[in-house]
Amino acid sequence: MNHQKEETFIKNLDHLGIVAGIVDEIGIVEKINDLLGTDTRERVSAGEVVKTIILNGLGFVSKPLYLFSQFFEDKAIEHFLGEGIKAEDLNDDKLVRVMDKLYKYGLTKLFLIIALEIVKKYGISPKYSHLDSTSLHLHGEYNNRLDNQEKELEIIRENPIIITQGYSRDHRIEYTVLIIEGN
What we know:
The chain has 2 domains: 113 residues, no CATH class; 52 residues, no CATH class. The protein is mainly alpha-helical and 183 residues long. It has 8 helices and 2 strands, in the order ααααααααββ. It is 44% helix and 8% strand.
């Protein structure tokens, strides 16, 4: 009679199982993989990394990026992402590479694409929808403020973030930040 000791591992799902299910239902992983591309040599795709970022963010954890994989050590990561994937596959290097891809693609553009997919999937009426992403307030003196158009091109080349004078909804003088992409 051969008695082998069988090991049992317990992994948590918590509320993240529901969140992962919603991410899957919306199709965020597939949409991000379609937009950013995939590499067959990678164990975890960009879309899957974004899914783990969402899970981590809704896991009420605020830790440095180099500890990102530790969050998933007691989680059922194979259930969330697939067989063979381990917490150590979600290291800070992988996370940063995906974040760089997301930034290069354009976060606002990506957000809009996913939001429109959700609107379409769930039949949400956008009739009264409004998204205000322009309310950024700055105060003080800024050396790169545009006072004339001759300096504009020189400043854009040196610094892709430009602060220009504008007005808020209550008509107080403020500055608007322009981010010039592609520099």
